[in-house]
Amino acid sequence: MSTNLKTKFEYYKNLTNTNLENFFNELNYPQIISSGMKYSVLNGGKRLRPFLLLATLEMLNIDIKKGIPSACAIELIHSYSLVHDDLPALDNDDLRRGKLTTHKKYGEANGILIGDALLTHAFYLLSEKNLNILSADKIVKIISLTSKYAGINGMIGGQTIDIESENKQIDLPTLQYIHTHKTGKMILLPIEIAIIIANLDDVKSNVLKEYAEIIGLTFQIKDDILDIEGEIDKIGKPIGSDLELNKSTYPSIFGLEKTKEILQEKTKEAKELLLNTFGETSKILIELADFIANRDN
Amino acid sequence: MSTNLKTKFEYYKNLTNTNLENFFNELNYPQIISSGMKYSVLNGGKRLRPFLLLATLEMLNIDIKKGIPSACAIELIHSYSLVHDDLPALDNDDLRRGKLTTHKKYGEANGILIGDALLTHAFYLLSEKNLNILSADKIVKIISLTSKYAGINGMIGGQTIDIESENKQIDLPTLQYIHTHKTGKMILLPIEIAIIIANLDDVKSNVLKEYAEIIGLTFQIKDDILDIEGEIDKIGKPIGSDLELNKSTYPSIFGLEKTKEILQEKTKEAKELLLNTFGETSKILIELADFIANRDN
Predict the structure, then answer these.
(1) Residue B262 in contact with residue B176, Cβ under 8 Å?
(2) Any idea what the Cα angle at residue B34 is, between residues B33 and B35, rounded to 5°?
C-alpha cells in the first residue's frame, strides 16, 4: 500500500471508529446487547466500505461529514452479517480476527439478538443521524437502496445461494450471482450513497458504479486466491477453507493462473475507467483498486 | 367480539394481507428466502398492529391507504421477531399456530436468514413503498421511530431482558421493562405512525400514546392470564409454559385475582381516555380495548 493510500485509510478509519464509538455511547441497556454490538463492530476492521464512501465524496469535492452516519450504518450492517454468518447453524466459526466470535463470547441467543440489533440500529443511524446533514429526500433514497442491497435482492440473497452451493458443482452464472450479491452489493452501496449525496450526473454515476462493481469482483477473486496461497497469520483464517467446504470459486473454475490474469485485467479496467472520467482526482480510488488486487490479507 | 369490531378486523386484515401478498409477489430469488418470508408472515395472524394503525387513521379521518406500507412493514418486523424467537438458541419452538416454525420447515440457517430478510425488507417497504404516499419528512420520522422501537431501545431490549430473567425472581420494574419493551413498543409504534401521518396535535397525540401504552400492557397481562387459564386448542400453545420457564408475570407477582382487577381497571382507564378526547369517533378503539381484556386466545 502506498504511503498516500495508507494515510487515507488510517484517516477515514479513525474518523469512522470515533463516530461509531460516539453512536455506541448513546446505548446502554441491556448492557449485554450494547456491549456485544461494540464488540462486534469495533474489532479492528479495515473499514473498506466507509473508505469507499468517504473517498468518493472527497473526490467529488463534497464535505465528507455528510457521509459519516451512512458510513457507520454500512459498518453496522457489514458487522451484523458477519455475526450471523459465524453462528453454529451457518459457518460455525469460533474465531474472527483471532478473537472469539460474538456468539462464542456472548452466547448463541445473544449472538442472534446482537446481530438483529446491529441491523436495526443501522436504519436508526441512516434516519435519525442524517436528519440535520442531508435532505429528507436523499435520506429516503439512501435507506431504500440500503435495504435493497442488504436484503433478499442483495447480500442475503448471495449468502443464501452461497450456502446452497456448498459441496456442489456450480456454474459460472451462479458463482457470479454469489459474488455480485454476497459481497458486491455492499461494496457498491457506499459508492452509490456518495453518488446520491453528491447529486452526481448519470454519466459520471455510471462510471463510478462500474468501478464499484469491478472492485467488488476483484475483492472476491483476490479472497479466493488468498484462500489458496495466503499465509495463515496474515489472513487470519485457515488456508483452504473454501476447498474444505467444496466451494466453487474462480480458481476452481478457471484455474489459479487464469484467475490471476482475470484479476489483473479487471483491475486495469477499473483504473482506466476512473482515470478517463475523473482524471487525477481519482488517484486514491485508483490506488485502492491496485491495493485490492495485490493485498496479502 | 362485537359484530362491528369483527367486521373491522376482517376488513383491515384482508387489506393488509392483500398488500403483503402484492409486496411478496415482487420477490422471487432465492426462492427459499422469498417462500420462507411468505410462510412466516402469511400465517393467519390477527394483524393487531395493522388494525391499530388503520383504525387510528380512520378515526382521525385520514385515508387509510396512507398507512398500508407502514402497516405491512410492522407485520414483517413482528414476524421476523417471532421467527428468531422460535430458533433453538432462543425459545426452541417447533410449532406456531399449529404449523411448523420457520426454521423447522426451512432449516435453521435459512430460518436466521429469512428473519434477517424480513427485518431488512420492512425498511424497504417503509422507504420505497411510502414514496408516493407520504412526504419524505414523514417517511424519515417513521423510519427513525420504527428502528428505535424495534431495536435495542425497544423490542430487542425487552426480549433480551426476558431471556435473562428466566428462572429468576425479578422485581416489578424489571417485569414492566420487559412488558413495555418486548411487546409494548411494537403496539405503540402503529399508533405513533398514525399520529405522524395525520400530523396530530400534541394533546391528542399524548392521549393516543397513553391509550397505546395501556393496551400494550393489558395485552401482555391477558396473555399471562391465558397462560394459566386458557384452553390449549384456543391459544395454540401449551398452557403453563411461563410457569415451566419460571417466568415472572403479573399473576406470579400479584396473584391471579388481583391481576384480573388490574386488567379491568387499566382497560377502563384506556377507554375513558379515548372517550373524553375523541368521543364517539373512538368507538372501534374502545371496543378493541375490551376485546384485548376479554379474548380467549
Answers:
(1) no
(2) 90
On whether the CB atoms of residues A169 and A179 are closer than 8 A, the answer is no
Q: Residue B78 sits in which domain range? A: 3-294
Q: Work out the number of other CB atoms within 10 angstroms of the CB of residue A196.
A: 18
Could you give the CA distance from residue B166 to residue B192 in angstroms, rounded to a whole number? 31
Distance CA A76, CA A96 (A): 16
| Tally of domains within chain B | 1
| CA–CA dist A262, A264 (Å, integer) | 5
How far is B86 from chain A, CA to nearest CA, in Å?
11
Model confidence over A240-257: pLDDT tens digits? Answer: 666 666 778 899 899 999
Distance CA(B143)–CA(A3), nearest Å, equals 41
What CA–CA distance (Å, rounded) separates A288 from A160? Answer: 29
Grid cell listed for A52 = 469507499
Distance of alpha carbon B58 from alpha carbon A127, whole angstroms? 27
Alpha-carbon distance of A107 to A292, in angstroms, equals 34
Q: B157 touching A, CB under 8 A?
A: yes
Low-confidence residues of chain B, pLDDT below 70?
231-245
**What is the SS3 assignment for B122?**
helix
Q: Which amino acid is at A157?
A: G
Tens digit of each residue's pLDDT (9 = 90 or more) over B166-192: 888 899 999 999 999 999 999 999 999
CA B105 to chain centre: 23
Backbone dihedral region of A107: left (phi > 0), alpha (psi from -120 to 50 degrees) or beta? left
The complex scores an ipTM of 0.96
Beta-sheet strands, E only, within chain B: 95-96, 99-100
Q: Which residues of B touch A163 (CB under 8 A)?
A: 109
Q: Bridge partners of B96?
A: B99
B120 — contact with chain A (CB < 8 Å)?
A: yes
A87 touches chain B (CB under 8 A): yes
Cis ω before A30 (30° cut-off from 0): yes
Interface contact A29-B164, CB threshold 8 A: no
Nearest chain A alpha carbon to B112 = A84
Contacts of A123 in chain B (CB under 8 A): 123, 143, 146-147
CB contact under 8 A, B113 and A139: no
Identity of the amino acid at B236: G
Whichever domain contains A98, its CATH number is: 1.10.600.10
